[in-house]
């Protein structure tokens, strides 16, 4: 006598086949499955930030003071914006070595046009960002249309735009920001002149929007006959985010309030995250990074996607250069040099973006630059030599790359 076939049981080897996690216990089981398959997500970065805070607070006793935390959120804007552009390039499986030079050249163009040529500062900024886009367009065209490797194209760009930066600045080599101008105010402006309502408002808005987005996604998945996360689990995640954002708002309001630079960086991260996760263009970027030939056969215009990514990364680098100029009070020949490029690339990788293409989030740029800036600030507070800072940052970067490689190997072995 035959019996009805039993329902297929999801294989524990494939987390995607498991039903959505239910409650705290379900989330814990899902987390264990993800860890077992190498899907660590942002966990190592979050743990690292906690360890960094504990270590430097125990050593300095004032690392977690409001003024120091505020300064960290201000200083991450420039490198963070460049790192967001790096994420897009790395998702393609490529590299852009020119972004530091693009940042320096853009800042130089904006300063010279506004201060020496007497342009309206907003027009000068628009011209500088437009020039950055042209630089990225040239990189993309040589890479996607001519076939020159991205490494070579952007290495040439790094040299060329550094030369352009020196040429624009001239013999003086430095152009001070216009006093109380737009660029000068990027780093010194706090929303509402320290009004605590801005920080609290943003801290409350973020988890509400996050919860609304998750519920909307779940509703669409159910309508399409797919499994979806329960509302309770979305509420738990939104609650955890609310705790984090409210704690941040409290710390900022103990000092000067919400920095404009942090708002711009968060806006860029949110906008680019939406583009990557919610738009057809974002899916095409991941498709090209996952496999060029497969993406081409699926109808993706690979050349157009590649060119647009290099334009976007250059635009964000130009914007980051303006924040660097605001922080140091001028545009000079050194802006964009030193460890600017390496910090941006390290931030993207430390935050969880894969060097092998096809995987990454723009939030990783924010998390990674928080790690780097926290280490830099903490070591400055204990008066460590810059050589020590470089070595520690290099060690953290190496650890992130090793973790990325192990995760990729785990996936390839069929365990994840």
From TrEMBL:
GO cellular component: plasma membrane
InterPro entries found in the cross-reference section: ABC_transp_permease
Keyword Transport set for record: yes
Topological category with respect to the lipid bilayer: Multi-pass membrane protein
GO molecular function, one term: transmembrane transporter activity
Localization in the cell: Cell membrane
Region (Disordered): 1-20
Keyword Transmembrane helix: yes
Transmembrane segments: 40-60, 72-92, 99-116, 122-139, 146-164, 196-213, 234-252, 258-276, 305-325, 337-356, 363-382, 388-406
Keyword set, alphabetical order: Cell inner membrane, Cell membrane, Membrane, Sugar transport, Transmembrane, Transmembrane helix, Transport
Described function: Part of the binding-protein-dependent transport system for D-xylose. Probably responsible for the translocation of the substrate across the membrane.
Official protein name in the record: Xylose transport system permease protein XylH
Native organism taxonomy: Bacteria, Bacillati, Actinomycetota, Actinomycetes, Kitasatosporales
